[in-house]
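Why does residue order matter? Because the sequence determines the fold. Keep that principle in mind as you read this record.
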Amino acid sequence: MTFAGLNLAALLALAAALSWTMAALFSHRPATELGSLHFNRLRMIAAVVIMAVMLLATGRPMAIGGEFWPYIILSSLTGIVFGDFLLFAAMRRVGPRRTNVLFATNALFAAVLGWVFLGESLGGQTFLAILFGFCGVVLAVIYGKRRDLMHQWEMVTPPLWIGVILGLSAAVCQALGVIFIRPAMAAGVDPVAATLARAAVGAVIFWMTWPFDKRRRDKPLIPERSLLLLIALNGLFGLGVGAAFLLAALETGNVATVTILASTTPVLILPFIWIKTRMMPAPGAWAGACLVVVCTVLLVT
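Structure:
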């Protein structure tokens, strides 16, 4: 499907990347103060409410055939429950920029998994685009920090290797979540309804862990208003709008193309870091951004 000469699935994937960039900006403080587990409990509730309101307001079909629920449950378990838990555990240790870079490797995992399990081809132009995108992401990470920048978003809780493993594990889980949901989206399941279903499954599982979370027993269930607002915004952009864009892209786009474009958040986040820290990112970060732009041109046109 195309729109004015551009691939609609690719544009939707880019919209998902921008939404997830916004979600990352809203998640660092609540994930650090509440912990990954409780932060995910609260953001799942926010996502379910937001997506339910969106479904009712737009009049989209809410019914999901029984044959698609196994795909949705598997996708939620891998992509949301394990993936998001590991993602925000990594963010607490290495900050949003590095976490987004590590998480972006899900594109490579998804491309390989799509080739192995779904029989999706990796043509020459697609392979070249993935190569440019991956190199751009690596440059944005390795040379993306100025030595004189000591903002809290750049702080690392040692040892560094724990944060790296957490981020890469989250990327693998995200890739599996995409692979599992792909057949349901290709069959025409409404992306907003599928997003709501995935979030609802995740909410049930996360809240089932509440009685066993000893670290939260002496702390309030509901945090202060400022944290609640950040959690709601993260749920809106992360599990709500962003996930809906991704699933809509998967209706017509192949896994490799959609996931590499949806994984450009490490580059998209650079202007926001500039605004927040009032310091321009390092030249290497912008060089990485240029490579990702080349990747985008190859995949979108």
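The CA atoms of residues 185 and 202 lie 19 Å apart.
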